[in-house]
């Protein structure tokens, strides 16, 4: 398998991971908005932590994917 094909496959995996993380992040945000008044303080803190963690993971995956895309352009 050529290096270009390997990079394409890696970017494809990053895209799938990105979409799954985005869906999870959006779900937690929606839960937080829907349950804000009824949730306990612990649940609010855990949801906030989950949103922050998922958002940082999204940024990390985005950066890694675009590094691979830039690498493909140079091949």
Could you spell the SSE succession in H and E letters?
HH
Shape: rod-shaped
* Helicity level: over 70%
Rg value: 17 Å
- Give the overall pLDDT as a whole number: 95
Q: How would the blueprint of this fold be written?
A:
Blueprint: H1 3-35, H2 41-74
Helix pairs in contact: 1-2
Short description:
This protein has 75 residues and is mainly alpha-helical. It has two helices and no strands. It has one domain.
Q: Can you describe this structure?
A:
The chain has 75 residues and is an all-alpha fold. The chain has one domain. It is built from two helices and no strands. α1 runs antiparallel to α2. The two termini are 14 Å apart. The mean pLDDT is 95.
List keywords for this structure.
75 residues, mainly alpha
């Amino acid at each position: 398998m050529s290096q270009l094909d390997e990079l394409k496959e890696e970017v494809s995996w990053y895209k799938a991971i990105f979409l799954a993380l985005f869906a999870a992040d959006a779900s937690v945000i929606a839960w937080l908005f829907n349950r804000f008044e009824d949730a306990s303080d612990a649940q609010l803190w855990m949801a906030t932590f989950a949103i922050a963690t998922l958002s940082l993971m999204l940024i990390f995956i985005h950066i890694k994917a675009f590094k691979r895309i830039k690498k493909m352009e140079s091949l």
